[in-house]
Amino acid sequence: MTAHPPPPTPRAGVTPVIEVEHLSTRFGQHWVHRDLNLVIEKGEVMALVGGSGSGKTTLLRQMVGLLYPTQGQIRLFGEPLFTGNAEQERNLRRRFGMLFQYGALYSSFTVFQNIAFPLRELGVVDEELIHDLVMLKLSMVELLPRHAWLMPSELSGGMIKRVALARALSMEPELLLLDEPTAGLDPDRSESFVRLISSLHEQLGLTVVLVTHDLDTLAGLAARVAVLAEQRILALGSVQEIMKVDHPFIRNFFCCDRAQRALQSRVSGETV
Q1: pLDDT in tens, 250-259
Q2: Residue 143 CB contacts under 8 Å (≥ 6 apart), including other chains
Q3: What is the pairing mode between strands 16-27 and 30-41?
Q4: 153-157, long-range: CB within 8 Å, 24+ apart, which pairs?
């Protein structure tokens, strides 16, 4: 772990899922990122944290081709993004799912239609198969078949998150991206949702990348953390390693009393 990480090289025998190389991002005259380098390995859970405006969500979306960087390269499953190859992009789209902040469900669609949307968009035409897949995904996120016919306006905040997660999992992805997955949830629903994501990560062998500002979510999910600050990756490593870096943001975020309680809770849970 280093406060100034060099361009990373995938470890021998380890499959990189995402490779970010010399990435820079500018909006107008404002630089958000300068020369970012990061490798995310198959099966790991990586959290992106940073202050407001540090470019966490921007980077998350760039990792799967939803936003273009100003400079640099991103490879997803070994394939370069932003090539303009429509067939390649379509094939890659099947391999990842994304949970947007606050769910981003289509308000005029039922739960069933929301979960089925990616299946239909990417060419699944067998309605019986779609029905079976939607019901399977509902079960995976601990919702009941009867919930399939509700509208988003009839759902609680926690249920919206679960439906959005089911939609993200609809194509059986290898990579799951989560933008503030517990935002807007009360502590009990947040804890339950974190347990669900952790369980799915283990059961499905997913690679997970999440953006979060919530310390309990971070402690409950992430094995590695990338801290974005000052237009760069300020620090990269486990939470314990990050806390050794002497920087104002890291001291304020990771070394406060709440952070210590969250981390202690994780340690206690692992030793039970």
Answers
A1: 888 876 666 5
A2: 111, 159, 162, 163, 166
A3: antiparallel
A4: 153/107, 155/111, 156/189, 157/184, 157/185, 157/189
